[in-house]
Write a structure and sequence with these properties.
There is one protein chain. The chain is elongated and about 85 Å long. Helix 3 packs antiparallel against helix 10. It contains 22 helices and ten strands. Strands 1-8-7-6-9-10 form a six-stranded parallel sheet, with helices on both faces. A two-stranded antiparallel sheet has the order 2-3. By secondary structure, it is α/β, with parallel strands linked by helices. It has two domains: 439 residues, Amino acid/polyamine transporter I, CATH 1.20.1740; 139 residues, Rossmann fold. The N terminus is likely disordered. The longest helix has 35 residues.
Length: 612
């Protein structure tokens, strides 16, 4: 059977993309500023400023990478152009980044809330977020905007109130020499965290046309990256400078699980637990010192919510990367198995359990920051280097040279982290080693077909259907109109749609949306999908005797409503038929109401019929 294929719509504009990016990238200042003081004391402004400059360079590099990878840039995609093994290493380094992001962000979020036992509560929170994601990703663009706006307001307010105190700053000259300053800068490289997010979103970003009508995402990418980049760098540097005006800060060395740790404490640390490890919640303390205690609570709540959102984003991102590698046959095919809500359940289990274990083993901010840095720097290095040496990309010489130079600089920082933090190197090797182990045939079994998706369903074994009906949108012009039915299975809704099409002499579009709840564009084929095969077979058997012309349409998406709306408007149907939802109120609350979303946005010239 021939089908009409439609792509996941590019419906993420720059505002939503920037909000999602800020939810990951914008959290870095919550802990980088405090860690800087822990590493360099009153000389921390200089390495922090150097890292901000490097962040600008890397951010500019990503405007180039995204431009040349409009269907999904990320480290995995760029490295795949060279070698499946390099792609595996890059993908696993990104997994290491996401693992520690989830642990670090959640722990720091509860530091900002002043939790008595932040480690234990963070472990419970990660588990709870994982359970919620069983019903599908929860970090939408709307939620990202909702959290990004108050965070920007708080950061700007804190920066404004910090300005009068800049006259009292105490900035010392670094006394560690070039080697020591380089090592400190490597410890602050966390300002780069989150930049890979934008590269993985290009496949769903809105496109625009240039003068000759050539579609491009370049304007969307620039509008996404630059506002976030400017905010992150300017306010990280400003708050890092203003921190030097805080009175009574000191650094204490204590024995930790990975050697001597340096903790920042305030003048009243003996009586105020909030001020005993200020590297974990420095902005909270700055809000109290520059504005007042009430504003400190505002800072704590806003940043805690943003950090918990970053935890959720990291878990969703980790699920997506594991699923993508399994879909491409580089991890076991069982990792593509979906639950009834379209969520890859094995990757979700991994994305929930591993951050818990990491947080339990490394239960402090600085230790997690080192693990975080080696993953994110490694992934960015591989991404930029792979893009630079992909000579099939029509880059200008200066673009390629900039990418090569930046990747070499980051490679040097990665080596520094590996040498100075051997346990971070061990963590990276374990994560990459796990990927290599899972790739070997004696673990993975027979190679999965490229793009193959696993379906946890009893409908296996449905025969492949032969082409029996003509297809094409032009058919609607010669008939009595068009009807679209969004079918979830061979149910009474499908029979009702065939009856309506026969009564009205209309063409019937039978749409099956395979819900794959990952945040990256992905592909699947109806021939590998037993549920879709069953729907199209039933449509053929019902429509044949009635003389109804059926146009099967198959696609996949993490959100069916936009697909249904886009197809209904594109082909100009008169009626849209959907089956009534039989899900519980709790599931509708967590998963969303597709019928309600469609009804609210459906054009007035299309009538919605709900059956059942």
């Amino acid at each position: 059977m021939a089908t009409l294929g439609i792509r996941r719509p590019r419906n993420v504009d720059w505002k939503r993309a920037a909000a999602i990016l800020y939810g990951d990238w914008g959290t870095s200042k919550a802990y980088v500023v405090g860690i800087a003081f822990a590493l360099a004391g009153y000389a921390s402004f200089w390495p922090l400023l150097a890292v901000c400059v490097l962040t600008v360079i890397v951010g500019f590099n990503y405007t180039r990478v995204c431009k040349y990878y409009p269907d999904g840039g990320g480290v995995y995609s760029s490295a795949s152009a060279h070698s499946k093994w390099l792609a595996l290493v890059g993908g696993m380094l990104l997994c290491a980044d996401y693992i520690v992001t989830a642990a670090l962000s959640c722990l720091d979020g509860f530091h900002y809330l002043g939790a008595h036992d932040p480690v234990r509560i963070a472990i419970l929170a990660i588990f709870f977020i994982g359970v919620l994601n069983f019903f599908g990703p929860k970090h939408t663009g709307s939620l990202a905007i909702l959290l990004a706006i108050p965070t920007v307001i708080v950061v700007v307010t804190l920066g404004v109130f910090a300005l009068p105190h800049l006259s009292a700053v105490r900035v010392e000259t670094p006394k560690t020499g070039f080697g020591g300053s380089w090592a400190i800068m490597a410890g602050l490289i966390l300002t780069l965290s989150g930049v890979e997010t934008v590269a993985n979103m290009t496949g769903v970003m809105e496109v625009s046309s240039r003068g000759k009508g050539e579609p491009t995402i370049d304007p969307t990418v620039k509008k996404t990256i630059w506002p976030v980049l400017i905010e992150v760098c300017i306010f990280t540097a400003l708050l890092g400078l203003a921190m030097h005006a805080l009175p009574g800060l000191s650094v204490h060395e204590v024995a930790g699980p990975h050697g001597v740790e340096q903790h920042v404490i305030g003048p009243d640390a003996a009586t105020n637990p909030q001020h005993r490890q200020l590297e974990a919640s420095m902005l909270h303390y700055m809000g109290e010192a520059f504005v007042g205690k009430w504003f400190a609570w505002v800072v704590g709540i806003v940043f805690a919510l943003l950090l918990l959102s970053a935890t959720n984003t990291a878990i969703v991102g980790l699920v997506s990367v594991i699923f993508m590698m399994a879909r491409d046959g580089r991890l076991p095919r069982h990792f593509t198995s979906l639950n009834r809500f379209g969520v890859p359940w094995i990757p979700l289990l991994i994305a929930t359990i591993i951050p818990l274990l990491v947080l339990d083993a490394v239960n402090n901010i600085q230790g997690l920051a080192s693990l975080y840095a080696i993953g994110v720097v490694g992934a960015i290095t591989v991404d930029l280097g792979s893009s630079a040496f992909n000579f099939r990309l029509p880059m200008k010489p200066w673009e390629r040279g900039l990418l090569i130079g930046t990747s070499l600089l980051l490679a040097g920082i990665w080596v520094t982290i590996a040498v100075t933090k051997p346990y971070a190197l061990l963590f990276a090797l374990l994560v990459v080693g796990f990927g290599v182990l899972m790739t070997t045939k004696w673990i993975k079994g027979p190679a999965a077909e490229a793009g193959e998706i696993g379906f946890d369903t009893k409908a296996m074994g449905v025969p492949v259907l032969e082409p029996v009906m003509a297809t094409g949108p032009a058919m609607t012009a010669a008939t009595g109109g068009a009807i679209l039915v969004a079918a979830r299975g061979p149910t009474d809704v499908l029979k009702f749609a065939v009856d309506e099409a026969a009564l009205r002499g209309a063409v019937l579009y039978v749409l099956f949306v395979r819900e794959i709840a990952v945040t990256i564009p992905t592909t699947s084929h109806w021939r590998n999908d037993p549920d879709a095969s069953a729907v199209f077979k039933a449509a053929r058997e019902l429509a044949g005797p009635r003389g109804v012309q059926v146009l099967p349409v198959y696609t996949n998406s993490d959100s069916p409503a936009p697909i249904i709306l886009d197809l209904a408007a594109t082909v100009g149907v008169e009626y849209l038929i959907m089956g009534g939802s039989h899900r519980s109120r709790l599931v509708n609350l967590l998963k969303g109401d597709v019928i309600g979303d469609v009804a609210r946005q459906l054009p007035p010239n299309i009538r919605l019929l709900i059956y059942g």
